[in-house]
Design a protein that fits this description.
197 residues; alpha/beta; 4-stranded parallel β-sheet; 8 helices; 43% helix; globular
Length: 197
């Protein structure tokens, strides 16, 4: 497993699943073209980029470049790194037929290719499990439970209020919130957020 300092943004959940087999870092999704009308999701990408850097990893088709250009137009260049997958004709196993342009997307790339494109993009590979700037052990679901944000009466409402305060998408699950808290904040900052949540 590759430990990477920067967060990585991909188009969708299948891309995220494929990449999570290779990289141990915060992996965020654009939701495809939803990124054009979801200001909260864009704010989350911007926050992650400013705190730890952001690697943009979209498909190599036209749609992927439109999404990449949207991110480039909103987030300052000094916080971005761009990873490009090669043009490979074919279709992903889960699909009945190839995409519009007949190219494999991020989800269809083998792990060694994903590692190569991340290295070429200049992603920062870390030794060990810890992320610099994110000191302390990661928060757990138990921490969310103790803060009243999951698994209890009224926890969904409290979590929704916290998401609104943090300018995060309102439909984020407890697991997604946990990933953002661990990926964008130090342990102390995250604990303070939970305490004031």
């Amino acid at each position: 497993m590759l430990h990477i300092r920067e967060a990585i943004v991909v188009e969708g959940r299948y891309d995220k699943n494929a990449l999570s087999q290779v990289a141990d870092t915060l992996i965020l999704e654009t939701g495809g073209f939803q990124i054009f009308k979801d200001s909260e999701r864009m704010a989350l990408l911007d926050r992650a980029a400013r705190r730890r850097g952001l690697v943009v990893l979209t498909d190599s088709d036209g749609a992927g470049f439109v999404i990449r250009n949207r991110i480039k137009g909103v987030i300052p260049a000094q916080f971005l790194k761009h990873a490009y997958i090669p043009d490979v004709c074919g279709k992903e196993r889960r699909k009945r037929q190839p995409g519009k342009e007949g190219k494999l997307g991020v989800e269809g790339m083998p792990p060694d290719v994903l590692e190569q494109v991340l290295r070429r993009a200049g992603a920062t590979f870390l030794d060990g499990d810890s992320l610099s700037g994110c000191a302390g052990p990661a928060l757990t679901k138990g921490d969310l439970f103790a803060a009243g944000l999951s698994g209890g009466e009224g926890s969904a409402e409290r979590r929704k209020a916290l998401l609104k305060r943090l300018e995060l998408p309102e439909h984020m699950s407890a697991n997604a919130l946990l990933a953002v808290l661990n990926g964008c904040y130090s342990r102390e900052e995250a604990e303070e957020i939970l305490k004031n949540g």
